Amino acid sequence: MISRIDLRGAAFPEGGIDRDLLPRAELDVEAALEKVRPICDDVRHRGTAALIDYAHRFDGVAIERVRVPAEALERALAELDPAVRAALEESIRRARLVHRDQRRTDHTTQVVPGGTVTERWVPVERVGLYVPGGRSVYPSSVVMNVVPAQEAGVGSMAVASPPQAEFGGLPHPTILAACALLGVDEVYAAGGAQAVAMFAYGTEDCRPVAMVTGPGNIYVAAAKRLLKGRIGIDAEAGPTEIAVLADATADPVHVAADLISQAEHDPLAASVLVTDSEELAAAVEKELDVQLGATKHVEDRIRPALSGRQSGIVLVDGLEQGLAVVDAYAAEHLEIQTEDAAAVAARVRNAGAIFVGAFAPVSLGDYAAGSNHVLPTGGCACHSSGLSVQSFLRGIHVVDYSREALAEIAGHVVTLAEAEDLPAHGAAVKARFDWKVPPSK
Fold first, then answer.
1. How, if at all, do strands 312-315 and 353-356 pair?
2. Is 13 a residue whose pLDDT tops 90?
3. Catalytic site residue from 332, 335, 373, 408
């Protein structure tokens, strides 16, 4: 069911593993751009009417309004299963603990007497938070988007999630309940590219936002790419992925369970095992067959995901090559199930989040570790981070120099301006000293 890639004995050039050798889903965001462009243009020009039309076309739902009424949010929370409410409340509590510690403080540096530069951290004024609603319901994504935005001090936020025919054209009630728990009262029944366009351009009901965050399908990713610049974005999220770096000490039951847990998201989900133990690889293959007999979503999601080109077992010569492989892969989620897992994890450079040892499965991070589960996919972890308080903050440098402090450096400023053939830059300094600039020290 799951393929093997044998890298043992292979020689790699200086600079590491060729990423093209590793499993990866094909995701053609560029092709999707031409499909979402007319949708986004339509929302820009027709606003709410376009959103209502697309709810009927794409979601099979007839709705009369897009904004979710306050009474629907209150009802969803009142009717929420008490066990689910308790789990969400604990997830929120843990997420707040972690994200509160990410807050940045302003810092002033005295460069010279009379000359300071202060870095001020200012939250984005208004954000749109997207919560998927396709094959599964994701109240956890409400938590992961809203908590860091709130801890950053964002003053205005709106949530969008696709309308559901089963619930009268509203988003899933568990999503609405999670919004109510977090105090978010601006929620829209809108999905896909049209929801991103609603946030970017605004409609009669929804004011435009400065930034859009949250995972979604390829059309959400394409709309983010199309509208980036008009709005800030967190990332172009692709299909979810897990890589497990394991040696002979790993339990094949754990490894197989974790590979399956990601595969149940989507047929394009990636599940990758990197190991130097052929015995473990064989045991995991057997265990996959065993566990598939006792779970849901096998034929429509898990089996296509595990058998797809994006998943596989990568055999390596040893831990050093294994580390090179997982760094080249740059997984959204990376589990380390090796001897002395903490020491191995400390050597990893590229991953969205790292899960250390046998008792830190990705599922823990999805819901209640306190970490954020909105993470870079498709190898983007080699240059990007997951969603955090920092995602919603902007650093602004405030420059405050006295006349004396400017005079001290003026000669150097003029010299550099003239070296760049920008004499007016130098003249702006000279004008402050009646064109008499003292030499810089």
1. unpaired
2. no
3. 332
Reported as half-sphere exposure (CB side, CA atoms, 13 A), residue 249 has a value of 10
Active-site residue, selected from the candidate residues 172, 254, 297, 333:
333
Asked whether residue 48 carries a pLDDT value surpassing 60, the answer given is yes
Task: Please report, as a single letter, which amino acid is at residue 120.
Answer: R
Q: If you count them, how many residues does the chain have?
A: 441
Per-residue pLDDT reduced to its tens digit, 64-78: 999 999 999 999 999
**What is the rounded CA–CA span in Å between residue 284 and residue 279?**
9
pTM summary value: 0.92
Sheet strands side by side (includes 156-161): 187-189, 156-161, 126-130, 211-213, 232-233
**What is the residue-averaged pLDDT of the chain?**
94
Q: What is the DSSP string of 216-267?
A: --HHHHHHHHHHBTTBEES----S-EEEEEE-TTS-HHHHHHHHHHHHTT-T
- With beta carbons less than 8 A apart as the criterion, state whether 25 and 268 touch: yes
List for the chain the helix, strand, coil content (%; round to 5): 45, 15, 35
State both tokens at 217.
Answer: 């399908």
Annotation says 333 is catalytic:
yes
Active site residue 425: no
